[in-house]
Structures are given as C-alpha cells and as structure tokens.
Amino acid sequence: MDNVRLLDRAYNPWALLEAFQQARFADATDFGATAVFTGTMRDFNEGDDVAKMYLEHYPGMTLRYLQTLADTAKQRWSLNDCLIVHRYGDINPGETIVLTAAWSAHRGAAFDACRYLIEDLKHHAPFWKKETLANGDTRWVAENTPG
Amino acid sequence: MINIKYFASLRESLGKQQDQIPCPSPCTVEQAWTQANPDTAPPEHILVAINQEYASLDAALKSGDEVAFFPPVTGG
Fold first, then answer.
1. What pTM value is reported for the model?
2. Tally of domains within chain B
3. Closest by alpha carbon to B33, among B71, B2, B62, B55?
4. Based on the structure, what is the number of domains in chain A?
5. Which of A52, A77, B34, B42 meets the CB 3.0–4.6 Å disulfide criterion with A109?
6. Do B75 and A128 touch (CB under 8 A)?
7. Which residues of A touch B75 (CB under 8 A)?
8. Domain interval for residue B27
9. Is the pLDDT of residue A105 over 80?
C-alpha cells in the first residue's frame, strides 16, 4: 500500500484515510494513536479573494522527495506507518490540498511525526502555488506562512 | 551535455522551461546557469536540484546530469 501519493483531482481525505487504515492495519491492534493533518484551500490570501489555484510540481523529484520524507519519519519515530497525500494541478477553494498522518503506539510519536511531515513538506517538497484572484489577476505565492 | 529545467515563476520570468548546454569539465551548477543565462544573475533565493536531489550552486556537474532551478517552494 503506497504511503505517498500525488493526486490530480479532488479527494475526500477522510475516506482515503479510512481506506488506507483498513488496507494497511485491517486486524492490527498494536497502534494506539493516529495523528492527522489536512490542509484545505482557502478563498482568501494576503487580503485578497482567491478564486482558484494551480499547483505546479517537479514530476521527477516530488514523489521521490516525499518518499524519502516518509521513510525518514519512520526511522526517526517509532511509527506503525505514515501517509502523505498531495494534490497538483487545478484546485478550487474548499478542496483538500495535503494530508499527512502518522500511526504509533502512543500519541507523542504520532503528533510529532505528523507535524514533522507537514512542516518539512512545506519547506522542501517541490510544489509551487499560483493563485487566480477573484478579479482575474494571477500571481505566484512567494512563500508559505510560518505556521 | 547538461539538461537544465526551470520551474514556476522562474520559468515564466526566463520565458523558457529548459536548456541543454555542453558540459566543460569541471563545471559547477553556477557556471551552467551563467552559460545558459549569460545576461541574468541567478535570483537570490534560488533553489537547485541535481538529478532530482537538492544541491548547491557550487556543486559539480557531470555530463548527462539534470539540473533544476526553482524559486522557494510553496506546497502544503
């Protein structure tokens, strides 16, 4: 079961989580904690109304970077598994862009690994957001918000 | 030959998504940039990858490498 995925269309993060957990841990009773982060597209940014977004990425590098990130998290914390899902292409407000999740015996590792996955992804995974504002103007997002 | 790729706002400002240049040995990433873009200095916060892994402007290139230049990332 791939624990890193790139998707070019809208998805329901909760259905995907349930399907992953069912496939990956069908009868497992050895994890006590699941931590999840989802990032959803807003309809505003820096004081402007945003109509839609295009997410560019570096096809040859993105999946490879995210797989290394997931593997690093599993080495750094005692995890049963972790999951990274990210959209690319055209995205509308209200749609889920990113999902990170971590499963572990206790909550500390799950929370810490889930936070690590999203923070590292935001700083290093080769994605770039281009916004189309409500007035039709387009602009590249220069940098992510600090937290 | 060195294959160069440009992404996002950098691709748009340069008006091209790729270049192919000969690889004089030795050749650093910064030298490859200058050869491909003689009239444009690399932007201050530019990021570099060689063969899909992060690298620095002073890293060495060899023939057949793919070097990518891109602005700070904004995923998530």
1. 0.95
2. 1
3. B2
4. 1
5. A77
6. yes
7. 55, 57, 86, 97-98, 121-122, 125-129, 144
8. 2-70
9. yes
CB contact B52 to A (< 8 Å) = yes
Question: Quick one: which of A124, A134, A143, A112 has its CA closest to A37?
Answer: A112
CB contact (8 A) between residue B74 and residue A127: yes
Q: What is the ipTM of this complex?
A: 0.95
Tokens, residue B39: 């009239």
Q: Is the dihedral of CA B56, B58, B60, B61 positive or negative?
A: positive
Average of per-residue pLDDT across A46-71:
97
The CATH number of residue B29's host domain is 3.10.20.30
What are A118-142's pLDDT values in tens digits? 999 999 999 999 999 999 999 999 8
Q: B66: which chain A residues are within 8 Å (Cβ-Cβ)?
A: 60
- B44 lies in some domain: yes
For residue B76, is it within any domain?
no
